[in-house]
């Protein structure tokens, strides 16, 4: 399983890739493997400011539906439109074309509280 070292991770299995005050967010390879085949993603916070650890949407797999949690405080500015027709991109490319939302960060210091790849691997027992 791949966990890119340039990303930060959460205990809830989301990843974030920040550049300046914008960032992309998705779920980890571990999370998508645990969920199984992704069939639908719903984001109901476009344009809204979402606090760290608050739910920003849901992800539906064949057998379950899971909440998506915001890694840090941010304003949701975009959802990955490719997921409308191809939600399975999350399974095949969770760190690339399978990103879920793009955000504007409202508190950059919160990034410091997230996990590095090595810490995340320890969390999931790798």
UniProtKB/TrEMBL annotation:
Keywords: Lipoyl. Binds 1 lipoyl cofactor covalently. The modification N6-lipoyllysine is found at residue 63. One of its GO terms (biological process) is protein lipoylation. Residues 22-104 form the Lipoyl-binding domain. GO terms for cellular component: cytosol; glycine cleavage complex. The glycine cleavage system is composed of four proteins: P, T, L and H. The glycine cleavage system catalyzes the degradation of glycine. The H protein shuttles the methylamine group of glycine from the P protein to the T protein. Belongs to the GcvH family. PANTHER family: GLYCINE CLEAVAGE SYSTEM H PROTEIN, GLYCINE CLEAVAGE SYSTEM H PROTEIN-RELATED. This is Glycine cleavage system H protein.
